[in-house]
Design a protein that fits this description.
mainly alpha
């Protein structure tokens, strides 16, 4: 039986996730200090970041089983990454995010977020505009509930 093939970039992403999770673990440890108890301020970030490290390493171990020699040359790897990373959809979503960041200053968080969500969903799903607008409004309501009401975060 042939080993399943990984998609381009999956090995790189696992290495990046391990590095990011170690970085987060380091900063969570700095928050918790020397004496960490279950009720200390840094206990939850420390526990969460430790789980992130464990699962990142586990994913790396699982990925080692797959397609060891799929792209042997550097040219082949770069070409495959360009095919995924610079596709029309990917570039357009990056443009959507940049326009969203610009709109935040002028339209405010709520209006800019609804426009961004609605526009990107309409483009990516090629679906019903009305349904996408309802989904965007529902997502905005959830975001506002969680961040403004529960966490008391001031949104832009």
């Amino acid at each position: 039986m042939e080993a399943p093939k990984l998609k381009v970039g999956e090995k790189v992403i696992t290495y990046v996730m391990i590095l990011i999770s170690l970085f987060i673990l380091y900063h969570a440890y700095k928050i918790s200090g020397q004496k960490t108890t279950a009720g200390s301020p840094g206990a939850f970030p420390l526990m969460t970041s430790l789980a992130l490290v464990v699962f990142s390493v586990w994913t790396w171990g699982e990925n080692r089983k797959f397609s060891p020699g799929l792209h042997k040359s550097l040219k082949s790897r770069i070409g495959a990454l360009q095919e995924i990373g610079f596709s029309g959809d990917c570039l357009l979503v990056i443009l959507f995010v940049l326009v969203y960041a610009f709109m935040l200053k002028f339209l405010g968080f709520s209006i800019a977020t609804v426009i961004f969500l609605w526009g990107s969903m309409c483009y990516l799903t090629k679906g019903n505009w009305g349904k996408n607008l309802l989904i965007a409004l529902f997502n905005l309501a959830i975001i506002l509930l969680i961040f403004k009401q529960i966490f008391k975060v001031i949104l832009p």
